[in-house]
Amino acid sequence: MIPNALPKSLVDNPRLEQWLAFKDGKVRLYTGKVELGQGVLTALAQIAAEELDVDFGRVEIVSGETPITPNEGFTAGSASIEVSGSAIRLASAEARALFTARAAVDLNTELRNITVRDGQFFVGGSPTGLDYWSLAGTVDFKGAVTGTAPVKARADYALVGKSIPRLDLRAKLVGGAFIHDIAIDGMLHARVLRRPWTGARCLDLPSSVIERFPSDVEVIRDGDLIAVVSISEAHATACMDALSANARWEGGTSIPDRADDVAWLRSLANVERETGNGRDIPQQPANTLRADYSRPYLAHASIAPSCAIARFDGDRLQVYTHSQGISFLRASLAKALHLDTERIDLFHRQSAGCYGHNGADDVAFDAAWLALKRQGAPIRVQWSRADELASAPVSSAMGMTMEASLDVNGKVTGWRMDVWSGPHGQRPGMSGGVNLLGAEALKHPPPAVTPVDVPDEMGGGALRNAIALYDVPQKVISHFIPQMPVRTSSFRGLGALGNVFAIESFIDELADAAGEDPVAYRLMLLRDERARRVVELVAKFAGWGHQPQGSGRAKGVAFSRYKNHAAYLAAVAEVRVAETVILEKIWCTVDAGLVINPDGLRNQIEGGIVQAASWTLHEEVRFVDGRISSDAWEQYPILRFSEVPDIEIELVEDAANPALGVGEVALGPTAAAIGNAVARALGMRIRQLPFSRDRLMRSLLATDQ
Predict the structure, then answer these.
(1) Can you tell me the distance from the alpha carbon of 422 to that of 399, in angstroms, rounded to the nearest whole number?
(2) Count of CB atoms within 10 A of residue 545's CB?
(3) Longest CA–CA separation in the chain, Å
């Protein structure tokens, strides 16, 4: 393997000692990727144990701790197995080769005579008394990983491809797995007053309210960033509730109540950019179809509110956080707090959180800021449910216009897609900015950064999956809206949910116009053999047949390849429609190349289906009086356990191909398959998400009139 073929994680962190250490019969594996519930740490440990030929139980994994783990950027984009897994495979193979070469010298034998079993060296089947740990001090791990050490043949895999139980499950079952469970002697509890909207200034904190606070409660303020700190969490919560109810604000930029109207979104100033691989719609096509689709703002709706703990001893700042980008957060904290980066240590701890930019980074700033104000004491900050739903970044609403021309045979002769969207990537560190909610409220805030979209080479933001995998000439126009009154940022799948929903819904509409079955029509437009295979398999798997229009019950199909270079997934949804949409079953077929842990992969697909079903049927951020009003479960309902459909998953065996990311692949196809099933069940199409009861009733009434 040549050096320029090394994965980015190895290019950025080239030394072997940054990845592996051997001590006391254990293998210490270091990774910058973090566990968000996706089971990635178990899979990465499997890869290392496989290449090192050690028992899985010997691997101790350290994740997301800035003092000792490699900087691998964000844990995002379904890239952990593809990028970090590849790096760990090569680093582990290199370590094995170095140890084996040293053993050959010490044993005065040739390399071909040596075998490794559970880290121990054998010659001619006999133990030699040498192992990784006895040789650890004699092998140089400070050198760069070359990527030239041979990796194991896949036919020899003993651990990769097995459903090994997840490393993090036991702690979650017995308690103590999450950041919320951390208790430190002398810990103080804090709550932070959130501004009602961007730029609002606090005119008054009534002294009559503060005077009634218990003696252990302290109010801390810097500009419009205001917090209460107490030894009692109950006192901190009650006092913050009192402050929130009585604080008076002025100025700033409030959110228009009609911000959830896609027509309003399309009216905003935007930056146009063209991409694609083909031409625009012909001037006089035989048949032209046009349709508008949209999806709303979505909240992360993390089950556990964001939480962080920080302590500053006068020299070093330590922060415990569930951020997905600890190295970027570290740099942003340094800028916002005017502290040298080398004096800040971040330690990732899990939360029942989300995939995307929720409040984790913001609450980490809250805790770090307060730790500098109250030196020596551990400060724990936990957001409220209202904070989580109304103050964390949300996913941008999107409007998609599809237009295509067909010839007399139903073949697509022209295709255009226009996408209106705000930013999908405003995490701390993106564009060099701080992007921390509390920091913006300081008397002297960090410089504001002009939002930009996620670059195409990183998978794209608003245009993620806007280029369809179908073999048609395509023109795609991005209408990027940089200045939004709503705080938007990274959300699971970024723009893929809206784009795949629009593309796959439109493909069904084109199939109807061409008089073709939706499955057959997709196969007619697909050249990619792996894409064709998952579509064919899911149709067979789900018992696909003729779907009559307007029967009240139907199946719908959809397909995508996430980011057009990660895993392939085709889904069939079965729905029943009465006063509401009842999702009864989802079948899906997945081609993820080499599968590291089949059970973990299935869990990711199931979780993606359930979350996407929730977005498709229920979720929608609302605005009233200049702010987000859907700040409680009553106003922001999510899918109930009783609504979870039966899910069947078929994995395509494809170990000959590299492992592909699967974390977000199910999202768009799930939404589109449900939409296509609803359209057939009703005999009419609803092009705006979610398919809530209110929207369903309005659509039916509009049709009757």
Answers:
(1) 10
(2) 10
(3) 90
Amino acid at 678: V
DSSP H helical segments within 408-486, as ranges? 437-440
- What structural domains and CATH numbers belong to the chain? 3-160 (3.30.365.10), 184-251+306-382 (3.30.365.10), 398-424+460-704 (3.30.365.10)
Among 55, 69, 80, CA closest to 17: 69
Residue linked to tokens 């996408």: 419
Q: Are 499 and 465 in contact (CB under 8 A)?
A: yes
CA dihedral 373→379→380→385, nearest 10 degrees, is -10
Sheet bearing 114-117, strands edge to edge: 114-117, 120-123, 126-131
Residue whose token pair is 């009240």: 552
Average pLDDT over residues 47-59: 97
Strand pairing class (475-480; 379-382): unpaired
Task: Please give the single-letter amino acid code of residue 699.
Answer: S
Give the integer Cα–Cα distance in Å for 338 and 349: 25
Report residue 282's pLDDT band, with 50, 70 and 90 as the boundaries.
Answer: low
- CA separation for the pair 317, 334 (Å, rounded): 10
Both structure tokens of 254:
């409030």
Kindly report the average pLDDT of the chain as a whole number. 93
Of the chain, the percentage scoring pLDDT greater than 70 comes to 98
Could you tell me if 621 and 636 are in contact, meaning their C-beta atoms sit under 8 angstroms apart? yes
Distance CA 326, CA 319 (A): 10
How confident is the model at residue 703, as a pLDDT?
A: 65
Beta partners for 389? none
Structure pTM? 0.94
Lowest mean pLDDT among 23-27, 353-357, 362-366, 669-673: 353-357
Give the tens place of pLDDT for each residue, 526-574: 999 999 999 999 999 999 998 888 889 999 999 999 999 999 999 999 9
Q: 422 and 489 in contact (C-beta within 8 Å)?
A: no
C-alpha span between 45 and 40 (Å, rounded): 9
Within 13 Å, how many C-alpha atoms sit on residue 542's CB side?
Answer: 33
Report d(CA 544, CA 517) in Å as an integer. 10
